[in-house]
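Predicting holo structure, zinc ion bound.
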Amino acid sequence: MSVSPTERTLWVTIPTDRAAIWGCIQRRSSIERRREMAHVEPRFNEFHTSGPGLQLQGVLRILGGVYPAQHLFEDYYWQRVFLTLAGVKRDAVAERTAVAERLLVDFFRRDPNPVAPDGPRLPELAAHLGRRFVIRRERPGAVTIRDLQSWFGRWRAEELRLNGPSAEWWKQHTSFDEWRRRELDDLLESGVLEQGCTITCNGCGSQNWYAANRLAARVACPGCSLETALPAQPEWSFRVNELVANALDREGALALLLTLVELENVAGDMFLFLPPQDVFEGRNREPFTDIDLAFIRSAKFGIAEVKSNVRGFDAAGLDRIATVAEDWRPDILLLAAPGASWPPEIAAEFARLSERLEPRRIDVRPWLLSWDYPKAVLEV
Ligand SMILES: [Zn+2]
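Done. Tokens:
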């Protein structure tokens, strides 16, 4: 680049993250084909941000980016406040498995005779499960400052008793102090939490929550439309932003956030990424598959498949990802899920995948995500 001394404005074109990643894909996918063909477009030459991708983008916009998200989730207290307010179970699969186990024990306690696939007890077992297999996903209503304070005390006592990985953190954070209140203000400011109050309707007795920005001297009941006057001293309460709550609630979004946090966790390193993308082959209108993340870090290009559970991977899904990887030739294919260890059958799938992609020099990298801090650094 040359700049003339008389030039007062310097224009630098910075490629978008999408353009940078597309550049990587084009260059790599043509490298080994050049010998036979002059120029070939990649087989998977279209990708668009998917529904979950747009949702993740929206959440990151509200949280202020990956780094503030990390800051928020590093704090055991706020992390749990968000998950609780969003009605999220950390491990929905484990929870459902526990329910299924309880129901089966129940069933066989009443009658220990075995259930054969074509025997008379099969409909009986199915009916037993059908009647009772209910998982309620409850999102609690708005919480007051008093709730937030009492949660703090309760969770702290609980975690210190369990003496798990977060115990050390809780020892250092003794109360819901001024500092916490200031953080609460910041969260309201950024819109991650919303402030409002619950007003009981004079007409029908319904308890309705109104966001502060929609309050007036008289508020209409969404049920019976009757107007009720705002109480003289309303008690403020808080809810988590709807978009954030929905994203956290959707299985997978939290694991994606965790992956991003662990990928970005190297200070000073260049890191850019694309949220979940639908990937298309040629002019097909149906996506061939979706890629959870595409990223460039430390001058390496990677794609990632992220699941919310270590058992979430299946052979067919991995096969499609591998097919895209063979075309795009990333340096790394990251396979991430929160958990303590990989089940043997999943580890075997990964080994097969690694063998398949080895000739293309693609490093297949299983990665266990952890909720606990300090965060592991993902070396790429
Ligand atoms: Zn009403």
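Residues 17-62+251-369 form a domain with the Trna Endonuclease; Chain: A, domain 1 fold (CATH 3.40.1350).
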